[in-house]
Amino acid sequence: MLTFIVRRLLITLPMMLVISFLVYLGLELTPGDAVSHMIDPEVANEVTPEQLAQLRAAYGLDKSFIERYGIWLVNIVQGNFGHSLSGGVSISAIVLDRLPATLELSVFALLFSTLIGCVLGTISALRRGSATDSTLTVVGMLGVSIPEFFFGLVAILIFALHLNWLPVGGRLMPGDESFIDHLPNIILPGIVLSLMMTAGVMRYSRSAMLDSLSREFIRTARSKGLPEWRINLVHGFRVALTPVVVLIGFRLPTLIGGSVIIEEVFQWPGVGSEFIEAVRGSDYPLVMSIALMSVFAVLMASLIVDVLTALIDPRVRLG
Amino acid sequence: MSQQTALSVKDLKTYFYTNKRCNKAVNGVSFDIKKGSTLCIVGESGCGKSVTASTIMQLLPRLSRIEEGSITYNSDAGEIAIHELERDGAEMKRIRGSEIAMIFQDPMTALNPVYTIGFQIAESLQYHTDLNKSQIRARTIELLANMGIPSPEQRVDEYPHHYSGGMRQRAMIAMAMSCNPKILIADEPTTALDVTIQAQIFELMEKLKTENDTAIMLITHDMGVVAELADDVAVMYMGNIVEAGTVDDVLRRPRHPYTKALLESIPVLGRGRSQDIKSIRGATPDPYDRPKGCQFAPRCDFATDACNQMPAEEQLSDTHRVMCWQHEELKQNA
Ligand SMILES: Nc1ncnc2c1ncn2[C@@H]1O[C@H](COP(=O)(O)OP(=O)(O)OP(=O)(O)O)[C@@H](O)[C@H]1O
Ligand SMILES: [Mg+2]
């Protein structure tokens, strides 16, 4: 198992390098450089080219592209992402400040969609052809095809404004401290964010379950005289679980992408809404750093999924 | 029912209902399986062998049901009318696996890939016996050892993909035999295995039969297997048993043209290359569009007008019976 993880990490590393290079290239291609951003346009005319060159040299900007990439990379590995253009705050500090909110939201959405998706998909498969199954199938189809921000707006309209059950948005109210305190705040954005994923997991676990139930080991289990629940869950669902976990891994990037929009809709103070602000303010270093971290998060998540798959499927461990 | 009979099937009919059409997959079959003996069921693909087996276990798909007839199981506690039991009721579930067990054609797919062999054998013991955890484990290892699996203490914790095909079928047999069933139904247990392994599996089944007095119902295509293993033989064609009897009755004195054709379609060792092997002409009819009378008539060399009517079953001796209008003809022919 350990060699499996190490090998998997070794595959991830070059991927990270390539992506970081692309991100740096993107940064390089954006108009202007750090120095031109630092100088107030009003005084720009008074700065002499010599002064500019001096400044550039001080920031290492006169070095070659590859050299600068190397320095940047070393900094990043040490957790130093540089500074935001607006306000000059350290990017790591900004992200660290925003990260807990985003993690909270994504983990909630991930757990919710996995749990509810698997349960509904399994029910659907076990009752295939029934009214329950058809209803769930239609709902699932709607779920994967309607964009999340639309659900978000409708949900705010109904549950927050109309019924007044849940807050419109935001995360921490004054006086809120524990997770329980802001549970009402996370319910709407969390569920809306997870909807698409839930629908996807449901549809997929339904078909994985149907496939698993039609396999011959189910007939063997039945011929042993096992009780129905054991045949369906211990044998059927357990085997259907592997493809479902793989699917969840594939869909994780959509969850991360979706969180950007949902955080904006619900004014959730996470990395996503910071990202949108950074895009609006043309804060390229911040935009690129967040993009890089998201890619990193996706790669790590897919690593975790691979390890999980290996844990639940003895055949993968072998390869 | 005689004390020697383990299972008695009378006039059994199992129909499938698909797309509002009815497939009479098993259309009135009767046979007995005796304790400690092997009944072989032979016949071409699609003649209803597997459906007969699933009917006995009440493992039929939803769209099919027992239409008529009886299945009587002679348990230690008296006769049980299986056809009257609820399909997935408690009694049927108790019988499955503990009194009547089954092994399948492809041991590759019949075992669950994500559980160890030991887990899958232990499962049966857990539900059908009162053994505790450590006793179950000991019994599982003992079973694997009895089935000729080397170093069973380690093998018990391995997954099916660590086993070779032959070993997997041994593990399947260990699972089936775990609760000492009275009847073992084997549906083409060696079709997916190569010939040497095949012989080993049959040897194992012979051993079980004599040592445990298990009644075996062996489904096969292979007349060679029949000659080797069977005590009794039933030849099926399109949902009927067209001829049944002891091995000698059926293999040496076949009285049904279909049996004869089946026997002629296999090469005999030692007769050289030039022997004439006849394949059976034509193909099995569409189950939804059956011939009116004798099902085999369109392919039969002996067919006459009389064959437009379903032949009655005729008892030729105590053990030998046949369903054919022309069986006298075949007697002279033989
Ligand atoms: N699940 C099913 N649904 C519908 N029809 C079925 C089903 N299983 C079997 N049948 C039909 O029942 C008939 C008998 O099939 P069965 O599987 O018993 O044949 P078989 O003798 O076991 O053949 P083989 O040697 O290929 O295993 C066939 O006409 C088949 O189409
Ligand atoms: Mg079959």
Topology:
The complex is a heterodimer of chains A (319) and B (334).
Chain A: H1 2-29, H2 34-38, H3 49-58, H4 65-77, H5 91-126, H6 131-145, H7 148-162, H8 183-213, H9 216-223, H10 228-265, H11 271-280, H12 284-312, H13 314-318
Helix pairs in contact in A: 1-4, 1-12, 5-6, 5-8, 5-10, 6-8, 7-8, 7-10, 8-10, 9-10, 10-11, 10-12, 11-12
Chain B: E1 5-18, E2 21-34, E3 38-42, H1 49-57, E4 64-75, E5 78-81, H2 90-98, E6 100-103, H3 107-110, H4 117-128, H5 133-146, H6 152-155, H7 165-177, E7 183-187, H8 195-212, E8 215-220, H9 223-229, E9 232-237, E10 240-246, H10 247-252, H11 257-264, E11 314-315, E12 321-322, H12 327-333
Parallel strand pairs in B: 3-8, 3-9, 6-7, 7-8
Antiparallel strand pairs in B: 1-2, 1-4, 4-5, 9-10, 10-12, 11-12
Helix pairs in contact in B: 4-5, 4-7, 5-7
* Apparent shape of chain B: globular
Ligand kinds:
adenosine-5'-triphosphate, magnesium ion
Order of helices and strands of chain B: EEEHEEHEHHHHHEHEHEEHHEEH
The residue fraction in helices of chain B comes out at: 25-40%
Poorly predicted parts of chain A: none
Helix and strand composition category of chain A:
mainly alpha
Tell me what the structure shows.
The complex is a heterodimer of chains A (about 325) and B (about 325). Chain A is mainly alpha-helical and about 325 residues long. Chain A has a domain at about 90-310: MetI-like fold. In chain A, about 75% of the residues lie in helices and about 0% in strands. Chain A contains 13 helices and no strands. In chain A, helix 1 packs antiparallel against helix 12 (about 285-310). The relative contact order of chain A is 0.13. Chain B is α/β, with parallel strands linked by helices and about 325 residues long. Among the domains of chain B are: about 110-180, no CATH class; about 255-334, no CATH class. In chain B, about 35% of the residues lie in helices and about 25% in strands. Chain B has helices spanning about 50-55, 90-100, 105-110, 115-130, 135-145, 150-155, 165-175, 195-210, 225-230, 245-250, 255-265, 325-334; strands spanning about 5-20, 20-35, 40, 65-75, 80, 100-105, 185, 215-220, 230-235, 240-245, 315, 320. In chain B, helix 4 (about 115-130) crosses helix 5 (about 135-145), helix 4 (about 115-130) packs parallel to helix 7 (about 165-175) and helix 5 crosses helix 7 (about 165-175). The model of chain B has no long low-confidence stretch (mean pLDDT about 90). The interface between A and B is medium-sized, with 23 and 29 residues. The complex binds adenosine-5'-triphosphate and magnesium ion.
